[in-house]
Amino acid sequence: MNALVMAVLLAAAGTLAVGVDSVWAQAKVAVTREESKPQKVEIKAGEEVQFINNSGGTAHVMFGGNEAIKFYLGKGTSKVRFDKAGTYEYTVHVSGTKVHAHTGSVVVK
Questions:
Q1: How many CB atoms are located within 10 Å of the residue 92 CB?
Q2: CA 51/CA 31 separation, integer angstroms
Q3: Fewer Cβ close by (within 10 Å): the C or N end of the chain?
Q4: CA distance 67 to 95
Q5: φ/ψ (deg, to 5) at 66
Q6: CA max distance for the chain
Q7: Which residues are registered as beta bridge partners of 61?
Q8: Of 62, 66, 53, nearest in space to 90 by CA
Q9: pLDDT tens, 96-107?
């Protein structure tokens, strides 16, 4: 009986550890009027970066280069998944601010 209880507890601990790893693996970028925090994030291929608009205005994010995409954050959040390794430079535009644009990067390993 004790061996069965121990096996269940170990299985539960393993599941909890996997859950914690997957939560911490996702990156978040807070968009403010002045900058993106952090300005550079590193993730593994297949992971997502969540952009959170804390600027008080509406915003959009544009990635340049061969993988060019543009998405509207509005006043909320948006996630982008990166499947290929590389460095992705982006520009954030916030409407209604003197500091209209700032940059950042996502490094995918």
A1: 23
A2: 7
A3: N
A4: 24
A5: -65, -25
A6: 68
A7: 71, 92
A8: 62
A9: 766 568 899 999
DSSP the chain: -HHHHHHHHHHHHHHHHHHHHHHHHSEEEEE-SS-EESSEEEE-TTEEEEEEE-SSS-EEEEE-GGG-EEEEEETSEEEEEE-S-EEEEEEEEETT-SS-EEEEEEEE-
For residue 60 the two structure tokens come to: 């959009």
In this structure, whether the domain defined by 26-108 belongs to CATH 2.60.40.420 is answered with yes
At residue 35, φ and ψ (nearest 5 deg) are -165, 175
Q: How many residues does the chain have?
A: 109
Strand partners, 60: 72, 93
* Residues sharing a CB contact under 8 Å with residue 71, sequence separation 6 or more, in sequence order: 60, 61, 78, 80
The CA distance from 88 to 109, in Å, is 11
Tokens for 106, please give them. Answer: 């996502």
Q: Is residue 57 predicted with pLDDT exceeding 60?
A: yes
**Whether this model's pTM surpasses 0.85:** no
